[in-house]
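Reopening: structure tokens for the F0G complex, inputs below.
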Amino acid sequence: MSEIKFYKHEQIPVEMHKVKIVQQLKLLPADERLKKIKEAGFNTFQLHNGDIFMDMLTDSGVNAMSDNMQSAMFRADDAYAGSETFYRMRDKLEEIFGIKYCLPAHQGRACENILAERFVKEGNCVIMNYHFTTAKAHITRRGGHVEELIKDEGLISKSDLPFKGDIDLDKVRKCIEKETPENISFMRIESGTNLIGGQPISYENMKEVTEIAKEKGIVTVLDASLLQDNLYFIKTREESMKDKSIREITRMIADLFDIIYFSARKFGFARGGAILVRDEDMFHSMEDLVPMFEGFLTYGGMSVKEMEAMTVGFDESMDMDVISQGPLFIDYCVKELDKYGVPVITPGGGLGAHLDASVICSHIPQQEYPAGALVCALYLCGGIRGMERGTLSEERNPDGSERFASMELVRLAFPRRVFTLSQTEYVIDRVKWLYDHRDMIGGLRFTHEPKTLRFFTGMLEATSDWPEKLVEAYKKEFGEEA
Ligand code: F0G
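Re-run output (same inputs, fresh job):
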């Protein structure tokens, strides 16, 4: 079942699990939050978790485990080589994806590192529907470049298109012609997309684009980190797939690709990663990189306990009652904000709700990081931690100029099975208040700017005393303690 229907009550999503273990939350007063965000250099990655009320930074490694996942951890087989846990994990992945060869790695970006080491040479091109920060960084570090060939509609924030993660087939053909197949390391399809609002890609589009790649002899790679949401959207939005089971859809997708990798911090609800390789020779050509960078070939830097948990998590990702939770809560949040007039990415996608900072903070120039400012303002106004997904998350051009992001988003991630609907209502309420006071938000500037992945460790300051003024207005509305 994907959604429980109501009789008299308005339609709302219902949690399909019950709480067994809790973590106490603390809501710091607004003045304290102001102090904390200054100490964090106006970078939400630098906040301490204990100073946060609603941690919606990410769904990575922070999803709630099920009782079955936790109990599986007890049977983990600790061995440097030949752990039975690894074989259980590998067999489960083969059962689901139909791919035999498995290279374990400690998380998604470690898989990206191995793929870049193996396939990317100076001057090479990697075709993508859209990039992810770490995927791109590994490719550019090796002297390659990324061509993002998302359909133009994918970047329109307000829309009712069901598959905004689809790649543009004409752009793909033209790009292959320009670059030549020999210069293309691989084609990476991200399902669903991370940086453009968790928007899904259709099965049909994956089928068509992988056919083009095959025809030209280009290796196809699926980033399945966000696959569970994408599977839900294919089943509920793609007419020709509605009668197929999640397992059938997963297998149909897997059959299209030469390589599948994922972050098990997302797919599998635990912490780890893996690369699945169809061809034996290709598998052997990457094998040595695992013990070099990760750990022996039967753990790849992961804890065996986590591997046992994710093996159960993979099965749970094939269950509509489990995978529908994220998209349904996100959809609820997006629709409530949209009704109020808050600019959000529509339709709701996977991963989280995405606020359109380019509209909400249209008064802040892009070089003063409107999405970065909005995400800090939201922490001040409610203790909610989101993530900047805009220009701050980009790297500068080689000449030092800013590379302006095509979208300026604040992501409010919904870790799976973590927050209740009343907590979701709280977030909606605070975003509405902030939207009504959006003119008070000002810009940010760097005080310390790292060259690579600056959004993780960079430090910034406000361009004026707007944070102080915003906190005063907030306290007037909600009181000193709120
Ligand atoms: N691919 C996608 C689509 C991702 O969303 C991520 C991580 C990765 C690869 C890298 O995986 O973190 O295990 O190394 N996304 C996290 C996020 C960080 O918050 O969206 P990782």
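The longest helix spans residues 325-340. DSSP finds 19 helices and 14 strands in the chain. Marking as resolved unless the reporter disagrees.
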